[in-house]
Design brief:
mainly beta; Immunoglobulin-like; Jelly Rolls; five-stranded mixed beta sheet; 28 strands; 0% helix
Length: 349
């Protein structure tokens, strides 16, 4: 039996808990690179380095980043050119034993980004070195997102509900997780706007990190909607993963997981749920996060059109914190040091 807690937040002057709203499925941590010289800069799961300091000026200029990984994990790593493509940038990745396990470079407008889905075989600290191929000032973006196990910043969603997505900034990605059973055929779809300047690509993953079918990409007005249909071979959690085609631009879209046929569980009972109402009006599209000791996290989700949110997984009997990420005036960011935090203790199972 799952614990269930429902809270109603009425006339709450929501304030900003982080520096941005939740415009995408996964909350990207966007950070400027440290000033030169930069070696051993830590990059976290779900983090994007992009900004005025993320530049190279000569082939001998090396920006080094490190992250902690475990044997059996898979990470999606993207290095992309930003702005004027005066030269190309390269990415070399080293395992904890200093073995070079990946090398790749951009190729101007033909290949403005280099990426790898890297399956780790050693536990420890990995190094990513970013360099350029010729002497010029060039800007870049570097992102890291875990694919397996599913990233803790993935947005949990339910079937038959449309969700907004936003790939922003360059090298960003979005992850949505959902429940499905062997009793139903499921369709995952995504659509870009009619005036879209860029395309998005979609992958769907089993819990073990393997693909369901092959990656699908939109093609502007010729093919603005992409779909992947499948019947689960086992009950559990699945992930839809999105990136901009080429990783050289930004793009909004909408996505949905639909039940095509069979016994579909479209309304799972959440462990933690609630409604956010601001001055009597439901606050839609607002980010909510849940953190709990002993659990990977934070778990992130967004309110729907009536201000409702839900989290499907908590540890019974362990206190948790729910943070509402928003602004009292949706058109103006609130001070960064203001936050609204709710702490609760779920009943034991």
């Amino acid at each position: 039996m799952t614990a269930k807690l429902k809270s109603t937040l009425v006339a709450l002057a929501l304030t900003l808990a982080v520096c941005v709203l939740f415009p995408t499925a996964a909350l990207a941590q966007v950070t400027n690179c440290p000033p030169e010289p930069s070696q051993g800069t830590f990059i976290a799961d779900g983090q994007i380095y992009i900004g005025t300091n993320c530049t190279l000026t000569s082939p001998g200029d090396v920006d080094g980043f490190v992250f902690s990984g475990n044997n059996g994990e898979t990470y999606h790593i993207v290095l992309a050119l930003v702005g004027a493509q005066t030269t190309n940038v390269c990415m070399n990745i080293y395992d904890p034993n200093a073995h070079n396990i990946f090398s790749g470079c951009t190729n101007g407008g033909f290949q403005p980004a280099v990426l790898v889905n890297l399956a780790l075989t050693v536990t420890g600290t990995y190094t990513i070195d970013v360099t350029e191929t010729s002497t010029a000032t060039v800007s870049y973006a570097l992102s890291l997102e875990r694919l397996h196990p599913f990233p803790p910043n993935a947005q949990q969603i339910t079937l038959n509900t449309q969700y907004p997505g936003n790939i922003n900034p360059i090298a960003d990605s979005n992850a949505f997780t959902f429940q499905a059973t062997t009793d139903a055929e499921v369709q995952v779809s995504a659509t870009i706007p009619s005036n879209a300047q860029n395309n998005v690509c979609m992958d769907v993953y089993f819990q073990d990190g393997t693909h369901i079918g092959t990656e699908q990409c939109t093609n502007g007005g010729f093919n603005p909607t992409i779909t992947i249909d499948f019947t689960p071979t086992e009950n559990g959690t699945f992930m839809a993963f999105f990136q901009e085609d080429g990783n050289d631009g930004t793009q909004t879209y909408t996505m949905e997981v639909s039940c095509l046929v069979g016994e579909c569980n479209t309304s799972p009972i959440p462990d933690v749920s609630g409604y956010i109402i601001f001055q009597g009006v439901p606050l839609a599209g607002t980010g909510v996060s849940l953190t709990q000791a002993g659990a990977p996290g934070p778990q992130l989700t967004m309110t729907n059109s009536i201000g409702y949110y839900q989290f499907l997984h908590i540890i019974s009997g362990v206190p948790f914190n729910v943070l509402i990420h928003g602004s009292a005036d949706p058109g103006k960011p609130a001070p960064a040091d203001d936050s609204e935090e709710k702490t609760a203790e779920p009943p034991s199972q």
